[in-house]
């Protein structure tokens, strides 16, 4: 008999690397650094390709942004429905997957950071086509998808723990956002607030280093940081904080209105007879008159943001442009173009802030707020309202202006906006769209383990069963006292019919000739195999039962689960997650 083949050197090296990554914080941080470098490189590549596509389609020079053009003719704008057709065809092909495309937030919340490379490439293609052809969407959906996806793929290839993979997903997103803006603090906070869902000691160093790596890649390739104009002097009083808080309240209402507008348009389009592939085509046609009124409504709005911040425009035009941009973003996303609202909300926020400061001046007759400072505060507050990342937006202003005093008043607007949106609406843009399709998550906080800990996984198989029409005397012979504590009853078709406590049938007053089904408990109460641990505990509280049966869809008995075991497993898993949050490396078989 031949001797078994010895493992190859490559296999042994891989196993050794995997053990180091699972057992050493330093090695894991080094892997997060690699993820940040990859994410930064992918972000710059996508940005260059999208800008090159816009330049080719619209005849732009290298340094010119689409949204900063003074005007565009009807013929040039015909590329919008053409791009819509391409996006629609990709969406039609993706619909064959029979499931929604998984983004970083949902992956980290429900699937332990597991992301599909096929989903990543589909989102990349849709977003690049949408933004490249000029639809009113940003590239951040593609940036974070590819950055987070690179972290997920490396973590899964190394077969790391569930929590480690989730951190790498956040590290990839941090590197992507940091590279896009040249702002490592904003990138790190984006990962914590949006992709990981919590500020945890275990994730602090890996995410921070990945964000620095992404910004380093952008800096070394000569990409300028996202610098913002700031007021030359700013004098802040208590009244100013109150006014900026009022601006935050305004941004909260505008942000909620934008999210509801997009959902309303999307719902109307889905109920319409338009085919999936044709929806972006119609959306592109509807964008043409808006873009003819002002090209600033196109793309993510980077060029328009810097143009408007350095130009004094009439209030009526600013208000009209805000409405046009909101409508353009709603049409783009509602009709099936792919992208995000991060970049677009930054531009819309500057318009809200400028309009707010201008109206205060008009009402009082004197300049109350500096227009540039108000525009930057509005930018951060509206983006925080829509994206759901208050510290990210505050850090973006700080890194873009290097003005700590301005950042302090921006913080007041940002915190008011995010708090009111959470109180009045309860969702960010990404979680709101998931809510519309039936998901219950409100952040990337890890709740997937709750769903994985199901009744089917916790049940005890091979339970004793008996026909429900069996007489008590025969039942006593089959199950003597002390042999079983409970027996599951089934009807003539093999379906669940209740649980009977064995000692009860040996008590006084029990009719030996009666069917045991008369003494069954919880005849109409059973657990589906996919019921999560929280639902199972709620059912135990409702029934006050010690054990419940687990049944299949057709009513066949699969097993039983006890309340004591369920609560023990829940406590064990909850303790494991708490230890992970504090940085302990806990073995996880998921």
Question: How does this structure look, described?
Answer:
With 590 residues, the chain is mostly helical. 62% of the residues lie in helices and 5% in strands. It has a three-stranded mixed sheet with strand order 1-2-3, with no helix packed on it. Helix 2 (25-58) runs antiparallel to helix 6, helix 5 runs antiparallel to helix 6 (140-157) and helix 13 packs antiparallel against helix 14. It is elongated and about 95 Å long. The mean pLDDT is 86.
Strand segment count = 6
- Class of secondary structure makeup: mainly alpha
Q: What is the H/E string?
A: HHHHHHHHHHHHHHHHHHHHEHEEEHEEH
| Sheet with most strands | 3 strands, mixed
CATH superfamily of the largest domain: Clc chloride channel
The N- and C-terminal alpha carbons lie at a distance of: 37 Å
Shape: elongated
Q: Mean of the pLDDT scores? A: 86
What would you report as the Rg, rounded to the nearest angstrom?
29 Å
CATH class group of the largest domain = Mainly Alpha
Low-confidence parts: none
* Order of adjacent strands in the largest pleated sheet: 1-2-3
Whole-number total of structural domains: 3
In CATH, the architecture of the largest domain is Orthogonal Bundle
Q: CATH fold name of the largest domain, please?
A: Clc chloride channel
What proportion of the residues is helical, as a percent range?
A: 55-70%
Task: Write a concise synopsis of the structure shown.
The chain is mostly helical.
């Amino acid at each position: 008999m031949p001797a078994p083949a010895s493992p190859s050197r490559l296999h042994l090296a891989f196993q050794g690397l995997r053990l180091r990554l699972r057992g050493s914080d330093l090695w894991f941080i080094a892997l997060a650094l690699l993820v940040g470098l990859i994410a930064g490189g992918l972000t710059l590549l996508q940005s260059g390709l999208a800008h090159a596509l816009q330049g080719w389609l619209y005849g732009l020079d290298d340094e010119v942004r689409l949204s900063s053009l003074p005007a565009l003719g009807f013929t040039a704008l015909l590329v919008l429905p053409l791009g819509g057709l391409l996006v629609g065809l990709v969406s039609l092909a993706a619909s064959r997957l029979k499931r929604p495309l998984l983004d970083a937030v949902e992956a980290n919340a429900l699937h332990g950071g597991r992301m599909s490379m096929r989903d990543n490439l589909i989102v990349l293609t849709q977003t690049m086509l949408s933004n490249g052809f000029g639809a009113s969407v940003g590239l951040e959906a593609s940036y974070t998808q590819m950055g987070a996806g690179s972290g997920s793929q490396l973590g899964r290839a190394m077969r790391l723990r569930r929590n480690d993979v989730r951190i790498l997903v956040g590290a990839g997103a941090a590197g992507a956002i940091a590279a896009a803006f040249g702002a490592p603090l904003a990138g790190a906070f984006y990962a914590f607030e949006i992709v990981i869902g919590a500020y945890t000691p275990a994730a602090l160093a890996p995410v921070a280093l990945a964000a620095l790596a992404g910004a380093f890649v952008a800096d070394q390739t000569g990409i300028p940081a996202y610098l913002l104009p700031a007021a030359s002097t700013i004098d802040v009083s208590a009244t100013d904080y109150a006014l900026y808080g009022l601006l935050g309240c305004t941004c909260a209402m505008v942000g909620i209105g934008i999210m509801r507008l997009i959902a309303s348009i999307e719902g109307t389009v889905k109920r319409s007879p338009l085919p999936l592939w044709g929806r972006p085509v119609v959306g592109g046609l509807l964008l043409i008159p808006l873009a003819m009124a002002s090209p600033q409504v196109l793309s993510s709005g980077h060029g328009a943001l810097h143009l408007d911040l350095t130009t004094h425009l009439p209030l009526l035009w600013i208000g009209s442009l805000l409405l046009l941009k909101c409508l353009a973003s709603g049409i783009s996303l509602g009709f099936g173009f792919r992208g995000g609202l991060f970049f677009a909300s930054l531009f819309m926020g500057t318009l809200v802030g400028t309009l707010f400061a201008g109206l205060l001046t008009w009402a009082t007759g004197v300049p109350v707020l500096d227009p540039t400072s108000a525009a930057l505060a509005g930018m951060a507050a509206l983006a925080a309202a829509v994206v759901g990342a208050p510290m990210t937006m505050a850090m973006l202003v700080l890194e873009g202006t290097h003005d700590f005093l301005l950042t302090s008043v921006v913080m007041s607007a940002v915190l008011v906006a995010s708090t009111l949106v959470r109180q009045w609406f309860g969702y960010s843009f990404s979680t709101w769209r998931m809510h519309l399709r039936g998901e219950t998550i409100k952040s990337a906080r890890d709740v997937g383990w709750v769903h994985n800990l199901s009744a089917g996984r916790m049940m005890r198989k091979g339970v004793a069963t008996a026909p429900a029409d069996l007489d008590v005397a025969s039942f006593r012979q089959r199950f003597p006292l002390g042999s079983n504590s409970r027996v599951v009853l089934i009807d003539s078709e093999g379906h669940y019919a209740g649980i009977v406590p064995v000692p009860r049938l040996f008590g006084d007053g029990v009719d030996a000739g009666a069917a045991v089904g008369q003494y069954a408990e919880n005849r109409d109460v059973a657990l589906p195999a996919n019921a999560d641990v929280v639902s199972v505990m709620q059912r135990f509280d409702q029934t006050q039962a010690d054990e419940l049966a687990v049944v299949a869809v057709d009513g066949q008995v699969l097993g039983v689960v006890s309340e004591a075991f369920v609560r023990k497993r829940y406590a064990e898993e909850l303790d494991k997650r708490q230890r992970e949050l504090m940085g302990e490396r806990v073995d996880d078989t998921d």
